[in-house]
């Protein structure tokens, strides 16, 4: 797992939430992982009805978001405001909207958890909001992983599921799915359906589920030879 994502997940997993999270960047897997966890766990089911709001950037202005963020929770310790697709907030990159958000970040309501999911790109560091965001909020920019980091992701993801995986299977997944972590996680989940509970994930399991048997065969795997370029994750 990305080190910054792990730090946040460890903290919120222990029930320690910060007032504002700005999750941004081209790698959306960790943005979804963190925001979905907060959405599912920051409030009890009985508190969510009055104290949890999910907004979409294209439908709101900064002022609308802050109207929600500045409310006090109803019969609960805190409230949660999640803004998905925050990169589409109508006035986020305009001076007026940026100033409103900066003013709130300087004095956030401590009983609110505000999560901005700014996907596919980062805030412009040439503008005041982009320059100051790291000092005023829990702000992380997630980049697409390098090829040599994919094996670690696959192994870690499966470890979290209580499963082991053969080296050959890791190589195939990393080589042919690539560095879109959402897609990689989905393909792993697809493979897991076919793996008996007491078995590790093998190359055969991956080939049967991911649809790449034309490129690899079990004899090449056993001999340690692979078509195309070698995977450099180990």
Structural commentary:
The chain has two domains: about 5-140, P-loop containing nucleotide triphosphate hydrolases (Rossmann fold, 3-Layer(aba) Sandwich), CATH 3.40.50.300; about 145-225, Helicase, Ruva Protein, domain 3. Helices cover about 45% and strands about 15% of the residues. The chain is built from eleven helices and five strands; from the N terminus they run H-E-H-H-E-H-E-H-E-H-E-H-H-H-H-H. The chain has helices at about 5-15, 30-40, 45-50, 60-70, 95-105, 130-135, 150-160, 165-175, 180-190, 205-210, 220-225, and strands at about 20-25, 50-55, 80-85, 110-120, 140. The chain has a five-stranded parallel beta sheet with strand order 2-3-4-1-5, with helices on both faces. The longest helix is centred in the N-terminal third of the chain and has 13 residues, at about 30-40.
Question: Any idea what the CATH architecture of the largest domain is?
Answer: 3-Layer(aba) Sandwich
Which value, in Å, is the CA radius of gyration?
A: 21 Å
- Strand line-up of the largest beta sheet: 2-3-4-1-5
CATH superfamily of the largest domain: P-loop containing nucleotide triphosphate hydrolases
Classify the secondary structure makeup into a structural class: alpha/beta
Based on Cα principal axes, name the global outline: elongated
Largest sheet: 5 strands, parallel
N-to-C order of helices and strands: HEHHEHEHEHEHHHHH
Helix percent band:
40-55%
By DSSP, the count of extended strands is 5
The number of distinct structural domains comes to: 2
Indicate the low-confidence ranges by residue numbers: 221-234
Which percent range describes the beta-strand content?
A: 5-15%
What's the level 1 CATH class of the largest domain?
Answer: Alpha Beta
- Terminal-residue CA separation: 16 Å
DSSP summary: helix tally: 11
**CATH topology name of the largest domain:** Rossmann fold
The overall pLDDT, averaged over residues, is 90
